[in-house]
Design brief:
single chain; mainly alpha; Proton glutamate symport protein; 20 helices; globular
Length: 421
């Protein structure tokens, strides 16, 4: 993606926020009408991105895994990526709790109570056994149609592994077809991303117009804590990992993350950002295709450290609001519940709020608290989704470097050169 397009996307997001905020403050009928009128354009942009996600994920994973050749390498890559996502999720929960605890004195209980808590139906989250069983798709085509990314990934990985074990001619026919399909989908993604400046503008304007300042003022301390926590998390966890483990300059990594982060913030959906992440991995970060094609779709389904940061902060805030005691045992159980749930957060706006229910139950916090968080969730949702995407790209950089030590593909070495463009 060109720098010009990256700048245009950022400008589009800023313009949408400015229009929405102006409409909310002035209540001018013309501004409110414009903000509402562009909303279908934003929905169309998200649908365009989602349209290519499932076939693109399937094709790039298939090509990446089938071309690995050695199944031990697949296990090694998967283990490294899963370890990265697990460790960062635990750190995210703890950091979110710590930052919220530090900023609680800034919160206004009266303002928080002004947001009337309503009944929120939290979805029934699967237990560990049901979660594992749910990863096995009885019908992979149904899983794809329903947007079940993790079951689809498991099926495609197994199919690609079996393809890699076929005789050379058969293997090359299948991988060649999948590679051509992936190339066509990536070309389609390039076309779609040219509409991103208009798309993110149309997504930001109506949401900001409806929310205005009133929503932010009611829980400003919580929103601020989440934003501080995710910035601190990226700075203290992801960037050192990229520099020390991935051996990539931080400036180069951040430059490559701009477009995926903006799209993630606008769409609040990690799977919808997969095309942009794959493009950034290829064009900006120059990662090996088998690595990025495997880790990025996996991270879109499992990389939820940004959600873990939010849920840690939300747990402490609601415990304070409802005067619930957070004893050491309660904190331990809540951290464990939040860690497990962070891997099952649905990729929908507000998913991190609704899936916080099990952690609230461990410390006796009423589920009515979920309604309070839902009332101010848009900005934290944008921040945590952008953080999730950053973590997925960071995991790709780290795994790419680890694979380079035992494989034969070339990666960027910060000590060998000062530029990669």
């Amino acid at each position: 993606m060109s720098v010009r397009l990256q700048v245009a996307i950022v400008v589009g997001l800023a313009a949408g926020l400015l229009l929405g905020l102006s409409a909310a403050i002035t209540q001018a009928s013309s501004l409110l009408w414009v903000a509402g009128a562009v909303e279908p354009i934003g929905a169309a942009f998200v649908d365009l991105l989602k349209m290519v996600v499932i076939p693109l994920v399937a094709s790039v994973i298939f090509v990446g895994v089938a071309s690995l050749g050695d199944l031990r390498r697949l296990g090694r890559m998967g283990g490294s990526a899963m370890a990265f996502f697990a460790v960062t999720s635990v750190l995210g929960v703890l950091l979110g709790m710590g930052v919220m605890r530090a900023l609680i004195p800034l919160a206004s209980e009266a303002a928080a109570q002004a947001v009337a808590p309503g009944a929120v139906q939290a979805p029934a989250l699967p237990g560990p056994v049901d979660f594992l069983l749910g990863l096995i798709p009885s019908n992979p085509f149904q899983a794809a149609a329903e947007g079940g990314l993790l079951p689809l990934i498991l099926f495609v990985v197994l199919l690609a592994a079996a393809t890699g074990a076929l005789p050379g001619e058969q293997r090359e026919r299948l991988t060649g077809l999948a590679d051509a399909v992936a190339a066509a989908l990536i070309k389609m993604t390039h076309w779609i991303l040219w509409t991103a400046p208009v798309g993110v503008f149309a997504l930001a304007a109506p949401v900001t117009a409806r929310a205005g300042w009133a929503m932010l003022q009611s829980l400003i301390a919580f929103v601020a804590a989440v934003l501080v926590a995710v910035v601190a998390f990226v700075t203290l966890v992801y960037l050192p990992a990229v520099r020390l483990l991935g051996r990539m300059p931080v400036a180069l990594f951040l430059k490559g993350c701009v477009s995926p982060q903006v799209i993630a913030a606008a769409t609040v959906s990690s799977p919808a950002t997969v095309p942009a992440m794959l493009e950034a991995a290829d064009d900006r970060l120059r990662l090996a295709r088998p690595v990025s094609g495997f880790v990025i779709p996996l991270g879109a389904g499992l990389g939820r450290a940004g959600s873990a940061v939010f849920q840690g902060a939300g747990l402490v805030f609601l415990a304070w609001l409802y005067n619930a005691s957070l004893a050491i045992s309660g904190i331990g159980g809540a951290v464990l519940a939040t860690f497990i749930v962070s891997f099952t957060v649905p990729s929908i706006p507000g998913g991190s709020v609704l899936s916080l229910a099990p952690a609230l139950g461990t410390v006796g916090i009423p589920l009515d608290g979920l309604a309070i968080l839902l009332g101010v969730d848009r900005i934290p949702d944008m921040a945590r989704t952008a953080t999730n995407v950053t973590g997925t790209l960071a995991a790709s950089v780290v795994v790419d470097r680890l694979e380079a030590k035992v494989g034969d593909h070339t990666v960027y070495d910060a000590d060998a050169s000062s530029s990669r463009d």
